[in-house]
Amino acid sequence: MNILAIESSCDETAVALYAGDAATGCGRILAEQIASQIETHARFGGVVPEVASREHLAALPPMVDAVMQEADLGWNHIDAIAVTSGPGLMGALLVGTSFARAAACVHGIPVLPVHHMEGHLLAPGLAGQLPAFPFITLLVSGGHTMLVRVDAIGSYSLIGQTLDDAAGECFDKSARLLGLPYPGGPEVARLARDGDASRFPLPRPMLNKDNLDFSFSGLKTAVMYAVRKLGGSEALSDQDRRDMAAAIEEAICDVLVSKALRACRQQRAPRLVIAGGVAANSHLRGLLASRGKGVELFLPELRHCTDNAAMIAYAAFARYGAGAPAPAEWDARPRWPL
Ligand code: KG4
Ligand code: ZN
Q1: Cα gap 63→5, rounded to integer Å
Q2: Res 177 pLDDT > 80
Q3: Residue 172: CB within 6 Å of ligand 1?
């Protein structure tokens, strides 16, 4: 089953071609491309929805051609088009879903709408088999921070989530307070390597609450006060920035790791997947490996942690590859619970 997949829910246009074997449940990526709009949005300090839609519109058609050429496949070899139909920016989603619908109509193939978060949840399947069920996924991106229990494909229970900011949002907003460019996560991680986290003791919100929820807005406020105390972001020295970045990264990762491991214990599911853009953070990966004794870790490849179309293809294959029919009626949904 050859699936052409399109992802355009936020600020990355991504296209992938995936060949799945329904008999074995395994498959491989034939070609994939990701075009990031980060530089365009960096000028504005965050994603501008209308700009994102226009960029997707310009990028998508040539990327589809390029991926099909790279895989040396024509439309007559494509069995279905998988597309992210939500959640995300409405205009951005409409570009991908409209393209998918039009191409599917012309070529007489089905469209398989995919939940963006299901793509992230199942991303480890791209590297081979999924973990045995049940497993826990810590989904940490710019818009979401959630702990999900996966009992089967399509059977997901939200067991913990953020009450305010997402972990990636906390990285991005804290970075902004330090005068760093968007997106802040990778910048904070880069500076943190040479920083001393102990210089700025930052709070670990909700760590002592015996539940699986998160809250990151208080941490961001603590960063704001610490920066103010030093005279504002312009007065920070390079070392101040490095130390503060290390303290921010340490605080966010400490909370994420503690709650994720607590989830594995409470749910008696000693298998943990981390997914979403923040899962690219190497300090987070290192902490999980050192503190997660007895828990088997599944870390998707870095390029499949951030937004990509291969994960959308795999989610469609996992859901529909066994012969489940494509939904007859569906729409792009900017808000869509998992
Ligand atoms: O999943 P993603 O690519 O997009 C969505 O939000 O759906 O995640 C982007 C988020 C941003 O907040 C970015 O700052 C964060 O992931 N991020 C990181 C790292 N790389 C990306 N945060 C911390 N460390 C990183 N290395
Ligand atoms: Zn995402």
Answers
A1: 11
A2: yes
A3: yes
Do the two domains 2-123+307-320 and 128-304 of this chain adopt the same fold? yes
The rounded Å distance from CA 106 to ligand 2 centre is 29
pLDDT digits (tens, 9 = 90+) for 67-86: 999 999 999 999 999 999 99
pTM of the model: 0.92
Q: Which residues surround ligand 2, an ion (CB under 5 A)?
A: 141, 307
Q: Report the alpha-carbon distance of residue 42 to residue 52 in Å, rounded.
A: 12
Binding residue ranges for substrate:
139-143, 172, 185, 281
CB 41 within 8 A of CB 118: no
State the pLDDT at residue 237: 97
> How far apart, in Å, do the first and last CA atoms of the chain sit?
26
Residue 61: partners with Cβ closer than 8 Å, 6 or more residues away: 99
The type of residue at 9 is S
Q: 128-304: what CATH class?
A: alpha beta
Burial profile 68-89: b = 16 or more Cβ within 10 angstroms, e = fewer: beebebeeeebebbbbbbbbbb
Distances 299 to 25, 39, 78, 279, 316 between C-alpha atoms, Å: 20, 27, 29, 8, 20
Is residue 182 within 8 A of residue 41, CB to CB? The reply is yes
Tell me, in angstroms, the distance from the centre of ligand 1 to residue 123's CA: 15
Query: Which stretch of DSSP H or E encloses residue 19?
Result: strand 12-21
How do the domains of the chain map onto residue ranges? 2-123+307-320, 128-304
138-148 pLDDT, tens digit per residue, is 999 988 999 99
* CATH label, 2-123+307-320, candidates 3.30.420.40, 1.20.140.160, 1.10.10.10, 3.40.50.720: 3.30.420.40
Cβ of 125 closer than 6 Å to ligand 1, yes or no, is: no
